[in-house]
Structure formats: C-alpha cells, structure tokens
Amino acid sequence: MDKEELNNLEDKIKKEKKDLEERMQQIKEEEKKLKYLNGTKRIYGRKLSIPTNKETYKEAYYENTYKEENNISNKKLVPLLVLIVILSFISGFMGAIVVVKYSSNNNVTVSKGSTSNVKITETSSISDAVNKVYDAVVVVEGYKDNNLVSTGTGFVYKKESNKAYIMTNNHVIESAKTIKVLFNNGDEIETKIVGSDTYSDIAVLSITDSNKISVAQTGNTSKLSVGDTVFAVGSPEGSTYAGTVTKGVLSAKERLVEVALSNSNTSDYYMKVLQTDTAINPGNSGGPLCNINGEVIGITNMKLVDSSVEGMGFAIPIEDALTYAESIEKTGKVARPYIGISMLDLSDSYYLWQAGITLPGNIKEGVAIYSVENSSPAAKAGLQKGDIITEVAGTKVGAVSKFRYELYKHSPNETIEIKYYRNGKLETTKITLSQNNS
C-alpha cells in the first residue's frame, strides 16, 4: 500500500469515526426526549389564526404541556383532601355566624316572595337625537325594466320651491332607470334623478314637497372630535329592515382611502372620509351618519370588508357632500377639471413596456403619460408621451389615483403648476385647466 492510499484510508476512518460520534449524540438526545415524553402529557389548544400581514393569515397550533407529579402517591393525597374539606366546613360555619350577627345588629328582614319597584334611568340614550332625523330618512330603491336592481338609503336635506331634495350615493342609483323612495310613514314616491357624480359618490333626487316630509339638520365636522358618539340610520338588506339605527364612535377624521370604481384590483381615486366603528351594512349606503345632537355630519358610503378587520366604516363629510350636491342641483353633475392625458402607474411595467416608455432609474414614484390629446391643455403646456409627472400644484403624486385626487381639488379655468421628468431631467410647466364635459 503506497503513501497516498494510506492517507486516503486514514481520512476515511476519521470521517466514519466522526459520523459515528454524531450518531451517538443523536441517539442520546432521542433517549432524553423519550424519557421526558414518558412523564409528560400534551394538550393541543384550539386552532388559531395569526395575522402575518393585512391580507394573509398563517394558521398555527399552540401546544400546552404539563408534567405529572408522579412522586405524589394516593396515600398522601387522601389526608390532604380530608384537610381541605374540614377547612371548608369551618370557613363556611364562621361566615354564617358573621352574617347572622350583622343581620341582627342592623335589623335586616327578608320577606319571602317580596318585590320592589326599581326605576332605571338611562343617561346614554340617543333616542332624542334619533327622533330629530328619523322621519327624514328614506329607503332608496332602484328599478330597471320593472325589476329591483339596487337598494340603499337616503335622506331629505333640503326643501325649496315646492321640492324636497334627497341625497344618496351614486353607486346606489347608477345601474337603475327609475328610483322610488319609501318613507317611514309608509309613503312610496317615485323620484326625479336630478344628477350624480361618480368620483364623489353623491346623487341627488327630488320629489314634490308636502307637509308630511321632514328635513334633516346638518352639522359641522370641524366641531367633531375623535371618540365622539355617532350613529347611523339606514336600511340594511333593503326595506325589510328600514330605519335601523346603529351607534358607535368617530374613529378618525380626514382619512384618505383608495377607491376602485370598478371590480378591478387597481385604485382609481382617493376619497377624504370620516371613519367610524358604527355598523355599516349593505343597504346603509347613502344614509346619514349623525352626531349626538341628531345633526347629519356624513353620508355613509363604504366599509372595509376583510377577515382581518372589524368595525371600519366610512362616510363622506357633510360639507363636501353639500358642495357636490349644490353643483348637481344646478347642472346635474360636478364640474371636473380636464387636462387631456391618459396615464399609467409606474408599477404597470407590462403596459409601460408595451407603450415603449422607459423609466429613469432614479424615479420611484409618479405617473407616466401614456398619450396626450391634440389641442388639450396638456398639449398646450408642452407635455409629451413618456413624461413622468411627480407633482401637482406643489403636492407629490405617486400614483394615478393620487394624481386624480389632487387635480380634482381644482376648478376649470384655474392655472396650476406641474412638475415632471423628461429624459431623466426635472422640468416644470403651468397648465390652465379646462372643463371635462363627459
């Protein structure tokens, strides 16, 4: 056997020796574990859902273990149990003596079968506030080809020139041709659709006024504080549960939430809303959210539905709703500014590639211009396909939904400043907005 073969054999022996030592250690650990388990019982608790993020959950089992104290014999347990019984008897006897003595000293008499009249006064009732708005709330039913296609809630917010005006949500009526409202007194009236707006989600209906119609009082959200009591009046699941009242608190003010106007997974718009834990159910849409004085401070229009979330409903602030409603009363719609571009989010990599738009490496947020209409305000301002808009009127915009939200804060004929990147260089331009007539 030469020297090389000898070295190989020596290495092989060393390796086998090491493997054997590791295996012996594993055997010792297994023996130790087996010994522990022989003296241990395991109880498996219920299956729990543990949130790992907003949308997904990981299921886990919790294992509770306890050790049996095998060194306690039955002989030792018997005297212990006897002692416990004796002590319990003595404690009960002493307690009885104390009660009897106390009763004797205070002349307490108990008459079998006697009753007493107890008056319960509730200090937290909102019934007076509910009564102020209740009769102004209506069930809104949308019909198409004589079929009921939608239900929601609305309320009378104004009476003028022999007309009563009802506010509700656009998404309640948008798929219907005919709208009827049901009052709490049983009256059912067909309405006229004055107009509506998709982005604000506000719709206005009108009916002929009468002395039987009540008008809701409107409040002011600037006077609200987080934690204030609020309540909603609505028609969950339609007219069967008309006039349902639910109570909660104002959870937050001026929340910005992303809204999808279709069933897609992308966001189309931002809405500034009030947040509440008041129960908001299907059919509540368009109904009033009120303060403790019975004044309408918001229009309920959506809730967050997710297995990880409870009690997150939202309402359009009454000031915004009334502003939109006033515009709808005058023209049947809300005047929106228009600049004449189509846009893509920077995360839409496939569509950007398809359009031949290349993003500079240093740009992480903004909206890409996909196309520019001829003779539009954007074209006149010099914007081109492939430009990346990052600011609107001094506010950064990271997505199409935020761009649209910031743009719609302005009115037609206003001039605003827009910042954008072209070929990696930051540029600035001013655009005079026109009106969207669509």
Task: Write up this protein.
This protein is an alpha+beta fold and 438 residues long. The chain folds into three domains: 65 residues, no CATH class; 206 residues, Beta Barrel (Thrombin, subunit H), CATH 2.40.10; 99 residues, Pdz3 Domain. The protein has eight helices and 23 strands. It has a seven-stranded antiparallel β-sheet. Strands 10-11-12-15-14-13 form a six-stranded antiparallel β-barrel. Strand 13 and strand 14 form a beta hairpin.
Uncertain stretches of 5 or more adjacent residues? 35-78, 96-113
| CATH C-level name of the largest domain | Mainly Beta
Radius of gyration based on Cα positions: 36 Å
Count of DSSP E strands?
23
Query: What's the CATH architecture of the largest domain?
Result: Beta Barrel
Strand order of the largest sheet: 7-6-3-4-5-9-8
Q: Report the sheet-strand fraction.
A: 35-45%
